[in-house]
Amino acid sequence: MLSIFDQGPPSPCPAPFNLAAHVLRKADMQPDKTALSVLQKENSQDWTFGQLNRAVLGTATGLLRTGLAPGDVVLMRLGNTVEFPIAYLGAIAAGLVPVPTSSQLTEPETARMIQDLSPAAVLRDPNIACAVHPRQIGLEDLIAMRDLPSARVDTGDPERMAYVVYTSGTSGKPRAVAHAHRAIWARQMMVNGWYGLRETDRLFHAGAFNWTYTLGTGLMDPWTIGATALIPEPDTDLSAFPILLRRHHATIFAAAPGVFRKILGDSDALNLPDLRHGLCAGEKLPRHLHERWVQSTGTELYEAYGMSECSTFISSSPANPARGDALGQPQPGRRVAIVGPDGPVPQGQEGTIAVHQDDPGLMLTYLNAPDEAHARMQGEWFLTGDQGAMAIDGQITYLGRDDDMMNAGGYRVSPVEVESVLARFPGISQVGAAAVEVKPDTFVIAAFYTGPEKLDEAALRTYVEANLARYKHPRAFIHIPELPTGGNGKLLRRALPAYFKAPSE
Asked: How far apart are CA 218 and CA 230, in angstroms?
């Protein structure tokens, strides 16, 4: 049998359709229910579904009154606050195309995005770095828009573009991933295929408002079914999370593996009486960390695999737990295969994890590289770039990347992007970047460079801080006589970690 797992076709997305209206469809039915609690040390800032809906639709009115029109692209340079999801959904409700970005990006990085996208405007917190753009809509103006009359939602073809997210490309140039309004319709396959989410749940997400993992899993998906989202206020120490989980009666906890690791620390037991289970994504969940969480909390962890181009589509869930080291299986409504050079391979054989071209969650294209999007298609399959194997029952085991992409705290980072920035630093002749293991299951980015002499590490750190988002920063700089290369002179990035010596405890 070939490695194709077909979970049945998803229900078709209705038309006309609007992503933001779908997310807030429960607002009129339960206007007084808490949609969002921003968790603070002693209390919380709460938003009901009614308040949230009015703020989103008022923001839509305000954005249109500035002269923006449906279809216009707006770059989001906002911080880790509630203003971020309100502006995001408000833009989509108005028919605009928001581009959410990490607040960690530097001015040079945003300059490339502005050149790439030619946005009609930038939604801007003055405290967040951004290159010059002639039309900036400030944070105070965005907040004032919430009190304006509600806009009429822009509905239309679910295939039209709704938003754009950036992901690191293997070439080193971040790719602008364009998604359709139907992408939110596809996310309902995660509700039972991963979350086990109920309308009565209180889902605590550990990430920042302006992380796409938080936007989807932490906010939009709970709101879509009428559940409550819990988000810690910015800069909350991870040591406070167990207290917040208990105090606010969280029933589901979502985070990247590193957060679960830090919360556990040296603890043998965590008292989380309301927690039903945890959700993990962003990078591969180590088996021993999974086992420690179960032993310490008495609750399960369900892992999901996905990518910016299609969100998550393989996962374990309360209904279908993962077996052994497997990721889980394709979610209901998904069609997934393990593909080799000639198409799907036999069950049990290694190949590239691929999702079917008709998946409603699959991107429209790369705005800045349509040819690259086309190149990732093999027949009817979109290739993820990750290796895996499928068992007879459809469970899929992750076997690693088939390229050199690095994972830093749940963010995929291209080594080429890091290398191209460091190559401009005086005194560096050649440079290679790779993820290195500093302690069991903990990886950081390291930069290996050649040059006449070892360079001042403080100066290197200052330089990357000005030119790369924090999650892209190398945490170690290693001067070596020459970089490892193959017979054709090409850099062998996978050989670089051997030159790194982890610091002793």
From this structure: 8
